Amino acid sequence: MYYAATQAFDLKEQHPETVRYTETLDSRNSSFTRMHREPVRIQPALQDQFRGIVRQAYDYSCGSAALTTLLNGYVGTRLTEQQTMSGLLRYGEYERIIERRSFSLLDMKRFVAALGMESGGYRGEFSDLVKQGQPAIVPIFYAGFKHFVVYKAYKDGRVYVADPALGNISFDEQRFKEVWENNTLFLINVAPEYRKDFLALQDSDMRHVEDATVNHHAFVNIQYPQFYMDKIADKASTIRLERNMNPESENFGEHQYNFLRLYYKSK
Question: Name one GO cellular component term (predicted).
């Protein structure tokens, strides 16, 4: 009764994303002591993909979503994309915004100034972007479209960005230099003691597959001839003695051994 009251039932309130699993610790012990139960919290992959990013609501709103991401993740504001869009329309070049259906860096600068902060758009080399040591909005030309993303960091030859459309992604250094539009960056000046690190790199950001690895597995040469692989498969199969019923075979009517391989078909 004591075990049933203390171990069999989990009376503590659990997070809705909690999954509990049980594993055997030592089968030599009694069943009351050999089981270990561990609660594990899981979450959809998409949630981590857009961690710290304000996802753009419209196909033309990458600028407002990128600015909101930068303000919330680096300055510490709690703006929604709709609030940022309203501010950009109010303090930016309204007529031109409507005409081109997009926001410019000048619109961003005016809105940030209305919030009481200094900011500006600059042009520089890739080394200048890295030396800043802070996130910045950068325009890129990618997949046939002009797009705004937030540069997060550079590490080990890769550039990590917060993309309002695709989430947390990365480019190798050379590829980023190719898509970076006009070497332009937009920075917000924030005193070091007030900076937030919500856009800092995490382990999940660096779980990428190197291009060289993809190429290696995509174009790897066959190491063994097919007949050798068949021979290995035959050794692992079941042998059955059967009569050859193929009238076109030279061994018709004779008994011979057949190798029966087991295949698994996924539904």
Answer: membrane
What the block records as the tokens of 69 is 């991401």
Same domain, 165 and 248: no
Structure tokens at 82: 């709709």
Tens of pLDDT, residues 95-105: 999 898 889 99
Does 68 qualify as catalytic in the annotation? no
Q: How many whole angstroms separate alpha carbon 205 and alpha carbon 200?
A: 10
Tokens of 224: 């063994």
Enclosing domain of residue 122: 45-223
Q: Which three-class secondary structure state does DSSP give residue 101?
A: coil
Question: Cα angle at 130 between 85 and 178, to 5 degrees?
Answer: 75
What's the pLDDT tens digit per position in 159-207?
A: 999 999 999 999 999 999 999 999 999 999 999 999 999 999 988 887 7
66 and 174 share a domain?
A: yes
If one counts the domains in the chain, the total is: 2
Residues 236 and 148 in one domain: no
Does residue 186 share a domain with residue 66? Answer: yes
The order of strands in the sheet holding 136-142 is 118-123, 184-189, 136-142, 145-155, 158-163, 167-172
Give me the mean pLDDT over the 73-93 stretch. 96
Q: Report the largest interatomic distance among the alpha carbons of the chain, rounded to a whole angstrom.
A: 94
| Distance (Å) of CA 202 to CA 57, 153, 199, 213, 247 | 25, 11, 9, 22, 67
Q: Which of 53, 54, 62, 71 is labelled catalytic?
A: 62
Encoded tokens for 227:
């007949």
- How much is the pLDDT for 179? 95
Say yes or no: 87 and 218 in one domain.
yes
Q: How many CA atoms does the CB half-sphere of 257 hold within 13 Å?
A: 6
